Amino acid sequence: MTAQPDQTGMATGKIIISVDAMGGDAGPSVVVAGIAKSAKKNPELGFILHGPEETLRKLVSKRRVLEGRVVFRDCPDVVTMEDKPSQVVRNGKNTSMWSTLESVRTGEATGAVSCGNTGALMALSMLRLRRLPGVTRPAIAILFPSRNPQGFNVLLDAGADIRADAPDLLQYALMGASYARNGMHLSRPRVGLLNVGTEEHKGRAELKEAQALIAQYAEPAKFEFVGFVEGSDIPGTRCDVIVTDGFTGNVAIKTGEGTARMIASLLREAFKYSPLSRLASVLAVTSLRRLSKRIDPRQVNGGVFLGLNGTVIKSHGSADATGVSAAIKLAFTLARSGFAERLAARVASVAELTQDVAQSADAALNKEKESN
Amino acid sequence: MTAQPDQTGMATGKIIISVDAMGGDAGPSVVVAGIAKSAKKNPELGFILHGPEETLRKLVSKRRVLEGRVVFRDCPDVVTMEDKPSQVVRNGKNTSMWSTLESVRTGEATGAVSCGNTGALMALSMLRLRRLPGVTRPAIAILFPSRNPQGFNVLLDAGADIRADAPDLLQYALMGASYARNGMHLSRPRVGLLNVGTEEHKGRAELKEAQALIAQYAEPAKFEFVGFVEGSDIPGTRCDVIVTDGFTGNVAIKTGEGTARMIASLLREAFKYSPLSRLASVLAVTSLRRLSKRIDPRQVNGGVFLGLNGTVIKSHGSADATGVSAAIKLAFTLARSGFAERLAARVASVAELTQDVAQSADAALNKEKESN
């Protein structure tokens, strides 16, 4: 969906992203620097910016590339990292986060980006945008660097909900496959279910149940199910989509990110060690920069909330301009592919399918009863 | 405990490690290469080697450093990676794995090392060595590279059991702290409880309960409790010991290891990219080697089974000679520190403490009842 000129004052044809300027660790100046970075690279982008208008106008006026491409929504309140989601749901009407989601709900913007409090953003998204018909638990999908040709794997749930039963894990598989198709252009994504071992006798009961369920829907939902995968497959090549509950997913990605940061910092120290290694780092600077770009978490900044009526992207609280710009790029890619509509259609069709299967199972059962 | 000369034919004063030559991916030659590597570095070491004696004698005879330092135990059977733990417990009496644990049970060896099937090794260890009094679930503790001065953090449980309730997590905290004291010489280890967020209102119910329990025992058990930690703290500096259930722990370390392997392979590619970067890699070779040693999973090869009457170390199934040697070094360090005895004493004293607390709580409760 594109914004109408009468609503935003911007030219039609642009894709409008609703951006929460507040709530990140670094304040609104970094968010404005991020949207300026995106605006420079992509002339198709327009923005609705939410927060204290006077401050935001000043910041935006310093960036010529943003001229005529930003509409402001004045909001006095900010959701802090310490606010409890339940409080924000009750008292958050005047916050920039609430206003940011409102622009998606009304259709003025095609996607929302916020660096704020994850729990509050998810709670508000569920309240204002509502879940897609058929979805019990929305999930956060993140991109993790991998050795696959597309450079990343999708992991979900990365922390929307600490619980997930077998039907939830099936929905994550469907939503993750849909995201991989639209966000990474994989026509037949390979989906794996995270477990402690690939042997079938290992793991929790709900995982065995989920394995059977997902296997059943792989064919009609046009993905390949590779079965159980392990932690090492998250950056690996065995699958493109990793499905797990939000507790395990959150721990896994934070461990992966922490490991990458530790290695990067040890690598910097190694190159500072001697005059020879310092010379080496100068010679290898281009190669190392390419590598560091490949594994830089800022480049894949942005957890996508899946299962809602609208696209919401949670950027890291500590994101800098590069990180904010990456989250906006993701929102743009998904908006252009019509992802929200496709996902809704996919989930709806599988909800029907589930009913069909349930009905035919019931029918078979009744038939059996009759014949007995 | 050191082996008696009449039992092994080796000189007293040596620390004897019982080694399973079979069950690893690479076969017995790699295991023999590994013990030879350790024997060369450490004259205090002696070995009891379990497997097909003829094959093993041939392999050992080629290594002069092992002359007079290896006793053989002929075992015709091997536990494979596909064998179910329950089968091995029932029918595994003639396997090298069973025999390896037997030498620890009888006191001939001070520690056992095996590259075989983790589930089977844990099941056999519980059956033959028995749990320490007061321990419900033994745990696997692994070392993960970190930015702490000691170079590693301890994580447990890394996969002994996919479940853990609050009292189990308390025991993991006690055992992990004891391991950090004896294996890493930290007089007052800092212990963290793995969760999805550091805010107290986040996470599963059993984690909140465990948080309260662990906090209560930190002082008497002489460790510092830093509260909830996140995945990024596993390679971080906030604590030395990370406590979690075996499902989450297993996924986390495998994700971390997978991420490290991915970066290492991308780094190698980066250095091959151009003539300039190839030259750089030559110049930086010493620094890079030091870095790669620091984050090489083989250097910290070995999960320690905690909570049993005896020290058992599970080496990676894919370990090479360097990996096997690292596992043996760990067994040696723990044997020399009298770790098994200290841990038993610690767990026993806290079991008493728990009883004391329970009794005084009961007493208080009864008093209250009486006064009402």
**What are the segments of chain A in which pLDDT stays under 50 over at least 5 consecutive residues?**
1-9, 368-372
Form type of chain A = globular
Number of helices of chain A: 13
Beta fraction of the residues of chain A? 15-25%
Give the % helix of chain A.
Answer: 40-55%
Largest interface here, residues on each chain? A-B, 63 and 63 residues
CATH superfamily of the largest domain in chain A: Isopropylmalate Dehydrogenase
Oligomer: homodimer
Radius of gyration of chain A: 22 Å
Largest sheet of chain A: 11 strands, mixed
The average pLDDT of chain A is 86
CATH topology of the largest domain in chain A: Isopropylmalate Dehydrogenase
User: What is the highest CATH level, the class of the largest domain in chain A?
Assistant: Alpha Beta
Features:
phospholipid metabolism (chains A, B), 11 strands, disordered N terminus, 11-stranded mixed sheet, 2 domains, alpha/beta, 13 helices, phospholipid biosynthesis (chains A, B), Isopropylmalate Dehydrogenase, Phosphate acyltransferase (chains A, B), lipid biosynthesis (chains A, B), 372 residues, disordered C terminus, homodimer
